[in-house]
Amino acid sequence: MTSPAPAHPDLYLVDGSGFIFRAFHALPPMTRGDGVPVNAVYGFSNMIYKLLTDFAAAQVAVIFDAKEETFRNKIYPDYKANRDAPPEELVPQFALIRESVHAFCLPCLELEGFEADDLIATYAKQAKARGQKVVIVSSDKDLMQLVGDGVTMWDPIKARSIAEPEVFEKFGVTPDKVVDVQALAGDSVDNVPGVPGIGIKTAAQLINEYGDLETLLARAGEIKQPKRRESLIEHAEKARVSKLLVKLDEAVPVTTPIDELRPREPDSSKLTAYLAKMEFKTLLNRVTTRLREEGQVVEHPDLPVETAAAAARALDPTPEAPVEARYELVQDLPALQRWIARAQRVGVVAFDTETDSLTPCVCGIVGVSLAVAPGEACYIPLCHVNPDAGGLDLDQAAKPQQISLDEFKTAIGPLLTDPSVLKIAHNGKFDLQVLQCLGLDVTPIDDTMLMSYALDGGSHGHGMDELASIHLGLKTTTFAEVCGSGKAQITFDRVPLDRALAYAAEDADVTLRLWQLFKQRLLADHMTTLYETIDRPLLRVVAGMESAGILIDRNALAKMGQKFGERMVQLEAEVQKLAGRPFNLGSPKQLGEVLFDELKLEGGRKLKSGAWTTDASVLDEIEDSHPIIPAIQSWRQLAKLKATYTDALQEEIQQKTGRVHTSYALAATSTGRLSSTEPNLQNIPIRTEEGRQIRTAFIAGPGNVLLSVDYSQIELRIVADIANIQALRDAFTNGDDIHALTASQVFGVPMADMTKDIRARAKAINFGIIYGISAFGLARQLGIPQSEASAYIKAYLERFSELRDYMEETKSFARKHGYVLTLLGRKCHVAGINEKNPARRSFAERQAINGRIQGTAADIMRRAMRNVSRALQRAGSPAQMLLQVHDELVFEVPETHAEATAAIVRTEMERAATLGVPLVAEAGWGKSWADAH
């Protein structure tokens, strides 16, 4: 692979660190026969070969980052502090890529204390001084400041050149002004602060107008826009520090002279051995052919047939159909070890756990299934009993033959934590908890339920049976078919092994087949980032929350329930006195007769059956018509609190832990919100005195406190940003009272004359607009005529016309695509958006408007939970995340660590996303959940 070289050939500087990540995300998953992931290595090796052959690069160097800490961290300690850990499948590829550089006999450079970009800048400057042309092999925006005067960039993924026109298209300025634009706009990826409220577009306008950063800052007082002017003046030093962070160092004390940046003649045996080891058959054939053409004698190593075939099977995005199911019952250790060895060779294994109940913290494991290829799966029974013995676990003789739990744990443990073997589960949160109770960890792990959710959101369910039908055309065996239903249902440990094998092995098999489809679709549908950085990391975070549970004061609940019951008796007597006779308040039929037949109240509505409806909406409308209505409403509220919380929560306390362990559904809503069940801890009312009393029963353990941190008005902030409502953006940036400001601007009331009533009306409109409230709904909420409510909404949309435009654009996009997109790229599907029925279509349109806002808030919270969890681990914090309630996170933490933990959590929540307005998180702590507010 040699070519004649001029005295000063073009210098190719390869951004090795940057290319690793781009290749990893651009290429589909690929594993070597022994299971090691190699997709980034493959992309890198092909790129190097192309440089040396198609480009005939005679002078080239590959440059890497030495480590995270550089001189920039001394300037700004938080530089790159919010960087995510690299994906688990990428970690083992770093060393293999460096090995690839050495195999191709290329200079491999790095220097402690500096980033790869600084070395590239230094060598580029030296080369220009010698009259050389420089090609930087990268698409990194930070390197674009070097473009011009003989320096271009080459994006190897998109196969395109980047020169001055492309830089201008990206930044809106010429390359020499890129640093100033970056200093103003900042960079959320590298945690470069910049100037709040100024993005790339605004920064480019300012730099083009004023020439450079220092001139702009010196003349900031001349800027007409008050928000922009004040931000530049207040954050001038942030801009200067940001410039120091983004400007590349062109005077790095490099240790390798530029003349030595030449590839040496490759050692053919070393290079081909490396490519054979990596099982890059196509590239190996190209390299050996080229070497032979150059007259070299080359032995062509053969790839191992078994491992190559296994790798091909693991990568096949469309499993052969029909696939013959070959399921094996594994009942002894040698058989289990064979399956473990196969999983290690393939590098991918799907797994599923079978248990005797669906409560992770108390259930017992019954068995585990594994799948290594479509149709090739096994079931490992561990704790089955003999069904003929009536389910009695008498002795080993009464049990079917199976591996002991201790033997299983010893054998399977290394596989579950092997970084070169990707484990795949469906609803893996449950399996993680089950195995963690046995002292077994699982990493790395993919989850097909979360992959499906990232791809198709609320367009359908994400249970395995439904996905198998939709994507594989398979009707799977249901749990009821194996265990029965109702009173006749048996636990899985009593299922005969032949039936258990067919059911459990199929689960693992289907999981693997779904993964093969979804992994490819994530890339093709551009949903890899959403899944990898938001949904997938949440798996482990939420599993930890559910396992931890929250402590409940049973006695407090019992006393509360008693008080609620006594008050209900009083209210019942009051209602019956007002009705003039006794009746059952819990009977909608009897209540309807009392209200509308006997008391003759107006506003009643009848059902098709002829009975009166007495649901909450009806009572709300006639609340002021008779004193009996508020008494009934109070009775109902207490009845619900007593049944749902004071009584039911006591039954939910697990004897084993003394805590309540809610279950969070990660893939249930259309917007990305988590939902809590068994019990639902997200619907405890906070605005009523009784609801706040319920929260006093949620307590911290001895020496601990409960810490609550929640976002302040996150959805309104998102509205201000996503609809680009400048008045609201300014208000949030300046810390103004958003509801008072809205009232002032919509109703024309000076701030000095603002009343609580006027502010309350504006608050209702602010939040109502988010949920697409109608004039009818607002009228009912505020107790005003519908015409007046309609006028309020009209005035609001006229004052904030940007919101009206956003609403129309969102509805139009939803009608065209069937979904809306959150700011972080999640698809929120909207059913009925093209309905002919006006009422249904209007409902869907309101869902679309709200879905984008609520979905963005949900994505930000998901990212915040991931970031907070990692930050607490880095800090060695003893805090434990317990609950997520929409915009709020609840932690249990030693009282002595509360303040430090609050600071960490607030910081991570506030920088979970970069909006045009600041995100604000507020913290409080106390002995109970109520005390924390």
Automatic annotation (TrEMBL):
It comes from the Bacteria. Residues 327-523 form the 3'-5' exonuclease domain. InterPro entries: 3'-5'_exonuclease_dom (IPR002562), 5-3_exonucl_a-hlix_arch_N (IPR020046), 5-3_exonuclease (IPR002421), 5-3_exonuclease_C_sf (IPR036279), DNA-dir_DNA_pol_A_CS (IPR019760), DNA-dir_DNA_pol_A_palm_dom (IPR001098), DNA/RNA_pol_sf (IPR043502), DNA_polI_H3TH (IPR020045). Its EC number is 2.7.7.7. One of its GO terms (biological process) is double-strand break repair. GO terms for molecular function: 3'-5' exonuclease activity; 5'-3' exonuclease activity; DNA binding; DNA-directed DNA polymerase activity. Residues 691-897 form the DNA-directed DNA polymerase family A palm domain. Keywords: DNA damage, DNA repair, DNA replication, DNA-binding, DNA-directed DNA polymerase, Exonuclease, Hydrolase, Nuclease, Nucleotidyltransferase, Transferase. Residues 7-264 form the 5'-3' exonuclease domain. It is an enzyme of class 2 (transferase). PROSITE patterns: DNA_POLYMERASE_A. Pfam families: 5_3_exonuc (PF01367), 5_3_exonuc_N (PF02739), DNA_pol_A (PF00476), DNA_pol_A_exo1 (PF01612). It catalyses: DNA(n) + a 2'-deoxyribonucleoside 5'-triphosphate = DNA(n+1) + diphosphate. In addition to polymerase activity, this DNA polymerase exhibits 3'-5' and 5'-3' exonuclease activity. Single-chain monomer with multiple functions. Belongs to the DNA polymerase type-A family. This is DNA polymerase I. The lineage of its organism: Bacteria, Pseudomonadati, Pseudomonadota, Alphaproteobacteria, Rhodospirillales.
